[in-house]
Amino acid sequence: MRSAARSKSVLSGASGPSASKVHSKWNGVDLCAILHEGSALVSAIDSYIAATRPFTIAKTMESDTASAGQVAAILYNCAEALRVATLMLYPAMPEKMAALWRLWSCSPLTNPDDCNSSFKAPFAELAQWAHPVYGLKPNQTIAKGDALFMRADPAESITTG
User: Fold this and answer.
1) CA triplet 89, 6, 16: central angle to 5 degrees?
2) What is the pLDDT at residue 157?
3) Residue 2: what pLDDT?
4) What does the buried/exposed string (b/e) look like for 103-131 if buried means 16 or more CB atoms within 10 Å of the residue's CB?
5) What span, in angstroms and rounded, lies between the C-alpha atoms of 55 and 49?
6) How much of the chain is helix, strand and coil, in % rounded to 5?
7) Measured distance CA(92)–CA(89) in Å, rounded
8) Is residue 133 packed enough to be buried (19+ CB in 10 Å), middle (13-18) or exposed (0-12)?
9) Model-level pTM?
């Protein structure tokens, strides 16, 4: 559990500055910067999964009961960080983000069925890590939906020059 707690601070630490940067960009409507921060947070989540290896740990759950709590903590951190990232990616993919929020019962929209409705609160409040109203709750059940993003393949990286 120790590595999951340490890694949690990595994701909560990554989402906080990203959310702060986005809040200032949102006021100036720097859409490219907002989307870049959301994409960077998704990349950080992917790195976190690679570092914490929750699916490898899950395979030991029958013989090691403590690993269940570790896996739960890792997956919560990933889901909460992704919730914050979806707020940043919403301008480019409002329908996909609204669909995810409905599946996870965490819609920040005044009308969850209308992806064009307004946010319930200011962005900075919605993007706060584990917000008591808008954040995901530990042990909250969330539904699985279609993949939002393709998994990054380092072999297919694009080189610019």
Assistant:
1) 30
2) 58
3) 45
4) ebebbbbeebeebeeeeeeebeebbbbbb
5) 9
6) 60, 0, 40
7) 6
8) exposed
9) 0.76
DSSP string, 37-51: HHHHHHHHHHHHHHH
Q: Which of 2, 9, 23 is nearest to 80 (CA)?
A: 9
Rounded to whole angstroms, the Cα distance separating 105 from 107 reads 6
Interval 3-56: pLDDT, tens: 454 455 567 766 766 777 776 666 667 888 899 999 999 999 999 999 999 999
Question: For residues 107 and 111, what is the distance between their CA atoms, to the nearest angstrom?
Answer: 8
User: Residues 98, 86: contact at Cβ < 8 Å?
Assistant: no
Single-letter code of the amino acid located at 77: N
Q: How far apart are CA 21 and CA 117, in angstroms?
A: 23
DSSP one-letter code for 109: B
Name the CATH architecture for the domain at 2-144: Orthogonal Bundle (1.10)
List phi, psi (to 5°) of 38: -65, -45
What six digits make up the tokens of 96?
């996909």
Domain locations along the chain: 2-144
The 10s digit of each residue's pLDDT in 99-144 is: 999 999 999 999 999 999 999 999 999 999 999 999 999 889 888 8
